[in-house]
Design goal:
Elements lengths: L2 E3 L3 H11 L7 H17 L1 H11 L13 H6 L6 H19 L6 E3 L5 E9 L2 E5 L11 H14 L3 E5 L10 H10 L3 E3 L3 H10 L9 E3 L4 H10 L4 E2 L7 E6 L5 H12 L6 E6 L2 H15 L5 H11 E5 L3 H11 L3 E5 L3 H4 L8 E4 L5 H6 L25 E9 L1 H17 L3 H15 L1
Parallel strand pairs: 1-11, 4-5, 4-7, 5-6, 7-8, 9-10, 9-12, 10-11, 12-13
Antiparallel strand pairs: 2-3, 3-14
Amino acid sequence: MKIYRYPSKTAEKKITSIVNRGVAFKKKDVSSVTRILEDVRKNGDRALIEYTNRFDAPGLTVALMKVSCREFDDAPKHVDRSFVRALNRAVSQIESFHQQQLDKSWINLKRPGTLLGQMVNPVDAAGIYVPGGKGGETPLVSSVLMGVIPAKIAGVKHVTMVTPPTQNGSVNPHLLVAAKKVGVDAVYKVGSAWAIAALAYGTETIPKVDVIVGPGNIYVTIAKKMVSGTVGIDMIAGPSEILIIADDTAIPEFTAADLLSQAEHDPLASAILVTDSMDTAKSVALAVNEQLKNLSRKEIAEQSLSRFGAIMVVSDVDAAIELSNQIAPEHLELQIRDPLTRAGQIRNAGAVFLGNYTPEPMGDYMAGPNHVLPTAGTARFSSALSVDTFVKKTSLIRYSRAAFEREAGDVIRLAEIEGLGAHANSVKIRLKRSQK
């Protein structure tokens, strides 16, 4: 990893190139997804099975598209005890965290003659997209947990999960065990943009939902963006990213490992170290090179670090935090003295990991907070997937006659200023009647 002194022209140019990599869509991909969405909208199951046969499972039929009770019952035979133990702990801790996010409906009667309030209700149906993970070889169990658990806690009546089938038309048993554990109502063997289309528009087999969440490839991301408005979505997620603020108390081997944990995701992933110690910068750079040698995804990590990795040496921790707030990273680690005392200075980050023994993967799998986080600088204005993603808030308003009369004149004046005569008349007609 290259070391830069910040601020400097070269450092600022590098930061700009990382921040601006964003989520770019090629015209041909947008055109392809547009055709897929329209095809599924018009032709339903027939289109779904054609895409699934062409790209995933040649022998799958519409009748086999929904995971059967027998498949669910058979799945536990193919997972080991250590997986079940880890799954149970993760589910318990993720549920506990998300329970704290529940909002309650409320009513306020403080203003004489008025009732004002807010009703909080879950959406009726949610769709959870779970990527295939190398054709089912690397099941993304955490995506099941992070999508389904907040939906269930919100009170969503029907939770549908979609995931690409393996070539033989099955779903990895680890995904099915996880899905059953968290209460998924139905799992369908479809993936990519056609799965998003099915959830957004509904087909003969797959019911339409109100909200779609979950990560995916570029086709999934484009499809979610296109159906947003027809349904709710969690976010338009870009490549993974991490920024680590470290001082001379950081352990270089830990810091290097955490940078690589994100770099291995994708050639477009970014990994940035910001430190006020040149010794730390040099030690981490050496540790990265050493650990790279043994990574199974070495080539991907090397590409990521070469294009979107950097070590920035700044004057002090305050400068490091200010730079981080400008970048607004998805994952921010504070490997510094007394990190909790600095947490209040963080304005823009998807999730903050405090201390040398809080690596980002703890948040991915086990800690409890959701790992579906804003990327590409969107942490400046958006938040992690949460219970709020699956609820709607409806206002309640009631006026007594006396309260109406007290405020009617002001409403009429504001409506007339805006040139909305019918609005004003809606109030005037009642005011005349009440004054008789």
